[in-house]
Amino acid sequence: MKKKIIFIVSLLLALSIPSVAYAEEYGNTYPAYVPVSGGAYIEVQCALGRGTLVFAREYKDGYFGFYGSGYSPANISRSTISGTYYTAAGAKYNARVNAMGEAQYYRETSTRYEWTNLNVTKIYNTNVKFEDFKDDRANIIDLFSYDPVTYLWLACTVVIILLLMYIAWRSSCD
To answer: The whole model's pTM is what?
Structure first.
């Protein structure tokens, strides 16, 4: 009976490990290319390439959520948040996040200046606490993350289960 319980627990553990979803975590390393220190920052990949949105420090908590189902930071307050967007290449743009809107930068076209969405596709580092009530956002199913460590854990789990099954089988034969 004890062997059957060990076998069932091992099997359940092996089946549950690859299907566990983890919420994505962002780094908190302040980008070296940003010339100002402090404040609320969000380092992103977007239409302008890699860069960092920097806002006043009071916007670290309770002001940002996400726009749609992607990574684009959204202002969930009732007023516009102004700041600066610094690219990793050294360019600097005025930035804003309108109330209930997504991040934009101020750019020059051939005839005028206009606000354009940054279209954020990834967040690298931040000290901002995002409000997010969607359970499925930024979750990664480990089995499909293409992370070699995940596959190593999965392979070790399968080997251990097969070993336990072999031991249980050998014990039942005796």
So the answer is: 0.63
